[in-house]
Amino acid sequence: MLPLVVRISDDDERSAEQLKLDGWREIEVLETWQHEAPQYFADDHLLTTPNDLDWPFIIRLVGEVEWQDRLHRDRAVLKTYADQAKVDWITAISKCPTRKTYALIRRDENKGPDPMWCGGFIAVWPGSEFDTIDLWAVRPDYQIADAQPYWWLGTSRQLLECAIVRSASKRLRAGTQETNIAARTCYERIGMKIMKRQRTFHK
Ligand SMILES: CC(C)(COP(=O)(O)OP(=O)(O)OC[C@H]1O[C@@H](n2cnc3c(N)ncnc32)[C@H](O)[C@@H]1OP(=O)(O)O)[C@@H](O)C(=O)NCCC(=O)NCCS
């Protein structure tokens, strides 16, 4: 059973006190990141829109990544349950025709178009003012040199840039935990800024 969730502004001390008195557990601070203006990058990324054969590799990657989302941070939620929720989410994304997903899929040229593994993926929800990141991850043991000739770019940056280039607004919005240093650093690097901070409570 998913915990109930409530989010309040990070400066709303009064509501925070009341929620704690009412038995809510404080879990995390969620930051919303966004570009202030459209961002333009060259579309020379090695990413593809996944096909039916690629999706199992993306779903497997989701199961292998260390997630820092609210379910994983809540000690009252079993890790196996939080992991399964993430896999369920990516499975739902894979079936949703309005989402857009791009992935770095490694194929063995000698064996044809079959995927070998997924180096990373980004799934976004398209919007007219900005596209919102649903989920993105990079394979933990991914060797950056494997991405040649784009090895200097880095998979995480490729994923973000690709999503921006192919969005109508040329802007991304993302929600992330203030403790997720890797994701925050990536957002900063491509010029995103924090526009909102919210304290998150579970019950
Ligand atoms: C978020 C994510 C996609 C970023 O991809 P990545 O390949 O790890 O990104 P990078 O290696 O370019 O790391 C970005 C920066 O953060 C830094 N960083 C990463 N983890 C860090 C940590 N635990 N502490 C301090 N800095 C850290 C890196 O050193 C790098 O900075 P640098 O180039 O100046 O050294 C990846 O970490 C990931 O899959 N995380 C798990 C899933 C997730 O959190 N997704 C985002 C929310 S949906």
Structural summary, described in words:
- This protein is α+β, with helices and mostly antiparallel strands and 203 residues long.
- The chain has one domain (5-202): 3-Layer(aba) Sandwich (Aminopeptidase).
- It has helices at 13-21, 55-64, 70-73, 79-95, 155-165, 181-189, and strands spanning 5-9, 25-34, 100-107, 115-125, 131-138, 172-177, 193-202.
- It has a 7-stranded mixed beta sheet with strand order 1-7-2-6-5-4-3, with helices on both faces.
- The chain binds coenzyme A.
- Residues 65-68, 135-138, 154-156, 176, 180-183, 185-186 line the site of coenzyme A.
Short description:
The protein is an alpha+beta fold and 203 residues long.
Mean pLDDT score, rounded? Answer: 92
- Assembly state of the chains shown: single chain
Structural shape:
globular
Structural class: alpha+beta
Query: What's the CATH H-level superfamily name?
Result: Gcn5-related N-acetyltransferase (GNAT)
- Bound small-molecule species: coenzyme A
Side by side, the strands of the main sheet go 1-7-2-6-5-4-3
What share of residues are in beta strands? 25-35%
Task: Assign the CATH architecture.
Answer: 3-Layer(aba) Sandwich
* Total number of strands: 7
CA-CA gap between termini: 11 Å
State the order of secondary-structure elements, H for helix, E for strand.
EHEHHHEEEHEHE
Helix coverage percent: 25-40%
CATH topology: Aminopeptidase
By CATH reckoning, the class would read: Alpha Beta
Tally of structural domains: 1
DSSP helical segment count: 6
Sheet with the most strands?
A: 7 strands, mixed
Low-confidence segments, given as residue ranges, are none
Rg for CA atoms: 18 Å
